[in-house]
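Let us work through a complete example step by step.
Step 1: write down the sequence.
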Amino acid sequence: MQIKKPKHLHALRELLAGTRYVLCVDLEATCDEYPAGLTDEQKSEHKLAVDRDQMETIEFGAVVLDRHRDYKIVSEFTSFVRPVLNPVLTDFCKRLTTIDQVDVDSADTYDEVRRRVDDYLAPFKDEGLMWCSWGDYDAKQLAMDAVRNRCEPMLAELSHTNAKKWHWKILACRAMALRPAVESWGLEWSGQYHRGIDDARNLGALVGEILRATPRA
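Step 2: predict the structure and record it as tokens.
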């Protein structure tokens, strides 16, 4: 893949210069969809089982890239999360994510997962750690979950950057979803799309490729 804006790649590398590790995160959340064929007027009258502002994290997936090892993935973490507002998953959500009701029924709460994530990340924080996601949705969702669960947001102590934004700036291309971006780079998609840990692995692979890239003279 040709780096069309080397200055932006340099800026990203400068942003990460003080950190050894990059945490690539992807969330899955409760959701619903409108029945097929509804007009805009009909949609305004149709009540979704889960409104957009009621979405809750049900899976947290993350991989760690090591700058000292050429941005290779060196560790990963995954956990289901039990929702509180809408504990029963919609059929659409189950089809989209392949997450079953039993997965979230037996999962830890958001705050319990947050504490486990903190413990998991403790060894990486000592040498510098920043986290990224494909877009800003994940950071906003974690903040909303924290309000509902009356606790600190997950990853609150870490700086966040938007990998999707860096991708289109560096390549001077249109913004795109994660899977098309991965495949446009020439990488083969691995795992199930819209599963937190699989999306995080693919995000990690893409971010590593971008950071290892050598701009053409």
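Step 3: interpret the result. The longest helix spans residues 196-212.
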